[in-house]
Every structure is written in C-alpha cells, then in structure tokens.
C-alpha cells in the first residue's frame, strides 16, 4: 500500500505524516544550503538549553519557517532553527527548539527532524531535555544520563511508529531493551569524571503535557521506577533507534516535582527556563568534551 503524506483531523489531534520521499526532499534541501556539511551527530536542545548550539564553529543557521513542510516552534525557550557547524573535527547539527505532542503536533511531526537528520547522515542522536525531579537523592540543577525511559503516551497508543511501516525508515517491530547506547553512556561517564561534573543516571518518564503532574501522578511515576519526568525525548529516541541511530539522552533537573499536598508552589515554566540558563555553561562544557570523546568508529557507516 503506498504511504501518502496527508493531513486529517482525528480525535482532535493533527495526523500529519511524512513519506520517505518527503523526508528525503527536506534532507536534500538542507544539504544544498551553502556551508552545510553532512552532519555526523544530531543534538536536540531541550527547553532553555539552546545555548548548546553556541559551541559550534563555522555555523550556518536555517530557520524552521524557511524549511519546506517543517513544523515551527511555539514554546518559549525553543528558538526554532537548525544550526549546522563543527565541534572539533565533527560536523554536527543542533535543533535549537524541538516539537512536542502538547503543541498539537502529530507524532510524525514531533519526530520528523530525527528522520531528516538521519537522511542527512547522522549516526548519533543526542537528545537533551529539562525535566522535573522525582528522586529524593537527586537535586535541582543536576544533570542525569538517561539510562531508560517510560513512554506513557506510547503505552496508551501514541507511539510514533504506529501506522503503515516503510522499511526504509526501519523494521516493523523493533526492540527497545538497548535503546539508550551503553557505549555512549560509558563515554559520558568518563567525560563527566574528567570534568568533575557530577552525572546522575536514571529513568525518564514522559507525560504528554502540557499540564505538570498531580501529586498522585508523581507518586505513581516513582512507584513504577521513574527518576525524572518531562514532556519530550521518548518519541525522538524511539524513532532514532528504529532508524539504527545510537541514542544518548541527558536531562537537566529544573525543578522538584511536588510530592506532598502541603507543599507549593506548583512547577512552572519560568523556573525551568531559569535553571536552564544557570546550568547552561556546564551543559555546554559537557557536550563540547563529550562530542570530542566519541570514537571515530562510532560515527562510521
Ligand atoms: O522536554 P523539553 O523540551 O526540554 O521541555 C520541558 O520543559 C517544558 C516545561 O517547562 C516542557 O516542554 C518539557 O518537556
Ligand atoms: N512533565 C514535566 N515536564 C517538565 N519539564 C520540566 N520540569 C517538568 C516537570 O516537572 N514535569
């Protein structure tokens, strides 16, 4: 059955999907831009972490609004552009702004940039995010390597791989027991020690958002093994792994989740942005060194 790009409204949720040919067209459009080199690594900048793109040299910016068929960023803290450039000798592309389910985007739209970056040549996807802390041993400002995730929307049917499967994107069924690359986690641990930056490790849970969690929801998430919670990352990680990319995930803990009815105030986006700003330098320092430490062999075909 041919897979067509289409836009329908179903259950009030946009159902835009993209064919392989459409994704390829966008990748070719970007590669044809003067100064753009095929990237080896894609970096998704989480809320308030767009400063990561400042670490690139020989930068070329492409605004999302100027890319055919691309969604646009609607959330404060997401600038809405791709930044191409180099870290050390490695060509990379940063997404300065990601797309979220709660913006009303379909899973295909949320994960489109991952497939575009894959067709442009990336071998590794680094996904960063801002997240709420659920673990009593962690604190606001900590950086956490994502060792696994709980993708609540996918468990309820909103998996980005639902629908006809084009094998050029990846296989119909795909296991996720090694979703977050153990090899990259080991590289990150070593770099963290060398830089004297404490790196936690834990499980990221995704709530579709945009509401932050209720007290009971936070308690439920802790009970099922989550350390932090956010509203992103899982869709992009699943689509990247399905496409054969190595995935590295990192959360910045921007707020403590409220676990007691007597505590307040509720979590809010302004705090998320301000912690992103205050921890931005360490995040940049870590990624600059981490990207340089990834072995060449990991970035080969
Ligand atoms: O996951 P990122 O995009 O980093 O952002 C997190 O922070 C925002 C809430 O403040 C939500 O978008 C949540 O997902
Ligand atoms: N769902 C969710 N996303 C976040 N992003 C940053 N903090 C939070 C949080 O507490 N909950």
TrEMBL record:
This is Purine nucleoside phosphorylase. The purine nucleoside phosphorylases catalyze the phosphorolytic breakdown of the N-glycosidic bond in the beta-(deoxy)ribonucleoside molecules, with the formation of the corresponding free purine bases and pentose-1-phosphate. Transmembrane segments: none annotated. Pfam families: PNP_UDP_1 (PF01048). It catalyses: guanosine + phosphate = alpha-D-ribose 1-phosphate + guanine; 2'-deoxyinosine + phosphate = 2-deoxy-alpha-D-ribose 1-phosphate + hypoxanthine; inosine + phosphate = alpha-D-ribose 1-phosphate + hypoxanthine; 2'-deoxyguanosine + phosphate = 2-deoxy-alpha-D-ribose 1-phosphate + guanine. One of its GO terms (biological process) is nucleoside metabolic process. The keyword Glycosyltransferase applies. It is an enzyme of class 2 (transferase). GO terms for cellular component: cytoplasm. Pathway: Purine metabolism; purine nucleoside salvage. GO terms for molecular function: purine-nucleoside phosphorylase activity. It comes from the Eukaryota. InterPro entries: Nucleoside_phosphorylase_d (IPR000845), Nucleoside_phosphorylase_sf (IPR035994), Pur_Nuc_Pase_Ino/Guo-sp (IPR011270), Purine_phosphorylase (IPR011268). Keywords: Glycosyltransferase, Transferase. The keyword Transferase applies. Belongs to the PNP/MTAP phosphorylase family. Residues 40-256 form the Nucleoside phosphorylase domain. Its EC number is 2.4.2.1.
């Amino acid at each position: 059955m041919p897979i067509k790009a289409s836009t329908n409204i179903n259950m009030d949720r946009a159902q835009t999907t993209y064919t392989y040919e459409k994704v390829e067209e966008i990748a070719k459009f970007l590669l044809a831009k003067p100064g753009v080199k095929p990237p080896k690594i894609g970096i998704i900048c989480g809320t308030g972490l767009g400063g990561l793109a400042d670490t690139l040299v020989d930068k070329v910016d492409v605004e999302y609004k100027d890319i055919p068929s691309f969604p646009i960023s609607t959330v404060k803290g997401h600038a809405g552009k791709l930044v191409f450039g180099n870290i050390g000798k490695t060509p990379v592309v940063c997404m300065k702004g990601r797309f979220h389910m709660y913006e009303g985007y379909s899973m295909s739209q949320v994960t489109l940039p991952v497939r575009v970056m894959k067709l442009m040549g990336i071998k590794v996807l680094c996904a960063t995010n801002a997240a709420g802390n659920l673990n009593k041993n962690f604190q606001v400002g900590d950086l956490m390597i994502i060792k696994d995730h709980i993708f609540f929307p996918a468990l309820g049917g909103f998996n980005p791989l639902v629908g006809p499967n084009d094998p050029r994107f990846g296989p119909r069924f795909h296991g996720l027991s090694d979703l977050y690359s153990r090899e990259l986690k080991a590289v990150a641990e070593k770099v963290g020690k060398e830089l004297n930056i404490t790196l936690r490790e834990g499980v990221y849970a995704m709530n579709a958002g945009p509401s932050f969690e209720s007290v009971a929801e936070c308690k439920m998430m802790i009970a099922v093994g989550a350390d932090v919670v956010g509203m992103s990352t899982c869709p992009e990680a699943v689509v990247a792994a399905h496409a054969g990319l190595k995935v590295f995930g990192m959360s910045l803990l921007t707020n403590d989740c409220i676990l007691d009815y007597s505590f307040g105030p509720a979590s809010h986006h302004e705090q998320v942005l301000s912690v992103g700003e205050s921890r931005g330098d360490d995040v940049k320092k870590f990624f600059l060194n981490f990207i340089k430490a990834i072995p060449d062999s990991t970035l080969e075909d």
